[in-house]
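Holo prediction — flavin-adenine dinucleotide.
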Amino acid sequence: MSAVAAGGPRVAVVGAGWAGLAAACEAVRRGAALTLYEASAQAGGRARSLVWRQGPRPLTVDNGQHLLVGAYRETLALIECLGGRPEALFTRLPLSLARTDGVSLRAARLPAPWHLALGLLGARGLPWRARFDSARLLASLRRSGWVTDPGLTVEQLLDRCRQGEPARELLWRPLCVSALNTRSFEASARVFAAVVRDTLGARAADSDFLVPAVPLSELLPGLTLPFLARHGAEVRLRTAVRALARTPRGLQLATADGYRAFDAVVLAVPPPRAAALIGSLTREARDPTRTRSGERPACPGFSFDYRPITTVYLRWPGRPHRLPALVMLPTEPRRGWHGQWLFGHRLADGGSLAAVVISADGPHRRLGRSELAQACVAQLRANLGLPDAEATLVLDEKRATFACTPELRRPPLDMLAGREPGLWLAGDYVDSEYPATLEAAVRSGLAAGARAAAA
Ligand SMILES: Cc1cc2nc3c(=O)[nH]c(=O)nc-3n(C[C@H](O)[C@H](O)[C@H](O)COP(=O)(O)OP(=O)(O)OC[C@H]3O[C@@H](n4cnc5c(N)ncnc54)[C@H](O)[C@@H]3O)c2cc1C
């Protein structure tokens, strides 16, 4: 990696989520003199860790269980470039859609498409009709170059490809909700097809699941901050950027402790904040006395419909239980079974930790936290014979991702290029073929960081 070039452009990255971290790394790699601003006390944004204090000793968990796939090329390349070893940081599992009721499909260790063809042939408990249907859908997507009509929902795509109920229920709907965090009846078929292309339709290794084996904060945040420090960049945590202004010295950022001008700025904050900051800039142009943000400016393209993700952690301190690394749970809201996926972790104290993930909206949102935790305890008892957990923690991220629907319009990275030179957007919401994911965030960050460094 190159060091910061003396006299390189002054670049500010606002927001230290994974998009902002990627932008900061890229700008530094290209010789920029970088300052990274983050409103909260830690980097990571929506993919960060926290300390769970209940129980015999504090435990670091993530603000929501995350799963990466082998197709996250840019994220994995960046981690490696920063000195991280993916084989030590992740548990790599071959694509597996195993359910607790015995239905299971596991990709074979063969080149594509044989990994999946053999996986479908050898699947357990999957009706033959579902295997033929799945193969038909994949063949049809491949024939169309993995592109679908932009107005189509996933459910309409499944209709067009004559998918029976078992294939929908056992494969496509769970895949859709976990990849797009949007239910199949409203999810974009085009984005779903891109995800299927890069996982099921690509190299066997691309479809691998990568479960973080360390807290999320030790992944990109933990690798980036020391890298930035080594290269002389300035990282300002607990420093929210409040407004932007264009001055003869460049783009000026206002924070609680003053003003500072830069040659280029990457806005890697969530869309409403980005809109407010861009609005503060245009207001400033009209009336230089107004530098406060907070008013909701008219800035089209930044309004999203969000979907939640709930993670319920169950902990058995000092007690090893045979937890599967990753298994799909049968969901039956009428029986109180809301959990969709279970991730099993072994703890350093010999105990066990289960992360039960519930994506998107659903009847679980009508339950209180302790009611939902008890429902998950009962679901795991019924499905895996697990004893009651000794401690539970419910983390509900209401704005985990935007709804990935056919109507969705995402602002392009260079949306501001003509109007506001030197100002770039980064974030999982920026136009991409991918849904709101770490990979979308990192890709946009790398692209924005490169352009900002060229200022
Ligand atoms: C529970 C949960 C589970 C998920 N599971 C997965 C998964 O399995 N796989 C996957 O790929 N993705 C998953 N995601 C999505 C993934 O976490 C996000 O796509 C990604 O983290 C978005 O990163 P970002 O940098 O675009 O935005 P953010 O993470 O939202 O970062 C924005 C940053 O800007 C900061 N900020 C805001 N305002 C200011 C300001 N004025 N000044 C300075 N800083 C500011 C914020 O504090 C924040 O740190 C999940 C998300 C959640 C919440």
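READOUT: Residues 14-20, 37-40, 45-47, 64, 66-67, 240-241, 268-270, 273, 309, 311, 397, 400-401, 427-428, 436-439, 441 surround flavin-adenine dinucleotide (CB under 6 Å).
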